[in-house]
Amino acid sequence: MDFFDVLKNRRSVRGYTPEIIEEEKLKKILEAVNCAPSAGNLQAYEVVLIRDAKQRKRIAEACLGQDFIAEAAVILVFCANLEVSSSRYGSRGIGLYAIQDATIACTYAQLACTAQGLSSCWIGAFNEKKAAEAISAPKEVKIVAVLPVGYPAKAPVETTRREISELVKEEKF
Questions:
Q1: pTM
Q2: 99: which residues sit within 8 A by CB, 6+ positions away?
Q3: How confident is the prediction along the chain (173 residues), in pLDDT tens digits per residue?
């Protein structure tokens, strides 16, 4: 799929089939994650891959009961590694760069999913403590996004977008 088609076709999907994701497709998603740019090339993020049904349910519960998350064949949990980023950038690394690194990596995963005919949905609504407990996250790791990945249960609906002229302000507001 052409890059610009990938961008136009990406949708947030909240219903998945039970179909297993092929290992080659999953590998390509993870390779895309590894290509994501990061501050100082530190890659101050970790990704937790969850396939187990019980563990997927625990994550869905931590995501404020968004049950559709557990339907996905795979869940990727993107975490900022604050310690790695702070080692070079101090408080700015903790408060910004590590979080940016993890979110860029999640974006790359979303686009890689779309390019392969898979669907995903960026989840930012979760109980941080419960989500961290579900993946046994160490204290220097902060969960920033949960990404269920799978085949869509139905075709995603096209959404409307703002006009470019509404988004872009040349030189100042």
A1: 0.95
A2: 80, 142, 144
A3: 899 999 999 999 999 999 999 999 999 999 999 999 999 999 999 999 999 999 999 999 999 999 999 999 999 999 999 999 999 999 999 999 999 999 999 999 999 999 999 999 999 999 999 999 999 999 999 999 999 999 999 988 888 999 999 999 998 88
Measure the CA angle with vertex 53, ends 81 and 105; round to 5°.
30
Contact 101, 43 (CB under 8 A): yes
Domain ranges (residues) in the chain: 3-152
Read off the DSSP letter of residue 139. Answer: T
Cβ atoms of 66 and 153 within 8 Å: the answer is no
Q: Domain 3-152 class?
A: alpha beta
Three-class DSSP labels, 2-61: CHHHHHHHCCECCCECCCCCCHHHHHHHHHHHHHCCCHHHCCCEEEEEECCHHHHHHHHH
Long-range (24+ apart) CB contacts under 8 A made by 64-68 are: 64/125, 64/126, 64/127, 66/14, 66/123, 66/125, 68/14, 68/15, 68/16, 68/121, 68/148
